[in-house]
Design brief:
alpha+beta, 4 helices, 162 residues, five-stranded antiparallel sheet, globular
Length: 162
């Protein structure tokens, strides 16, 4: 991935995180307490709820030779490894089609650089693909809000789909 792509993605992610991410909820303010002459009225309160950032749409279906912003959740030397199965299950639980984003990392030109592995080695990978860097960054923020992390994000060309 080229330096401008890394800077763009990092800038977008920083903007999304700094602004509270998409779907962020403003803090509520509390009313002032009763004055000395007022009788406090008992109230019932409900615990605050957390609104999770919405999940952005992925690409309809990656195409051979097409460009996409890939967000990688797992990489391993063995496609049957537990980290691969866990990442596929996570994507499916979130409503994504995991099959489009799982397979051989070498099929994503630029993918090895995004996750920081040697491109000459063989790796299995699980990820989600987005049309824009903003959607990819929103996905990262949404995963983080749900307690999950990602291995890497980058602009890739998808192959092995013909």
């Amino acid at each position: 991935m080229t330096r401008p792509h890394l800077l763009l993605c990092g800038s977008i992610l920083a903007l999304v995180v700094a602004t509270g991410g998409p779907g962020a909820v403003a803090e509520s303010t509390t009313a002032p307490g009763p004055s000395a002459t007022e009788t406090p009225v008992p109230t019932t309160s409900t615990p605050p709820t957390t609104t999770l950032a919405p999940l952005p749409p992925t690409q309809e279906e990656p195409v051979h030779g097409g460009s996409a912003w890939a967000v990688y959740l797992a990489v391993a030397t063995d496609i049957s490894g537990p980290e691969i199965a866990d990442a596929i299950a996570l994507l499916e639980d979130l409503g994504y089609v995991a099959g489009w984003g799982s397979g051989d990392l070498a099929c994503d030109q630029g993918g090895a650089q995004a996750v920081g592995v040697d491109p000459s080695d063989n790796y299995a990978v699980v990820g989600a693909y987005f049309d824009t860097a903003l959607d990819a960054a929103r996905f990262v923020v949404a995963l983080d809000a749900r307690g999950h992390s990602v291995l890497g994000i980058g602009l890739v060309q998808t192959y092995c789909l013909d």
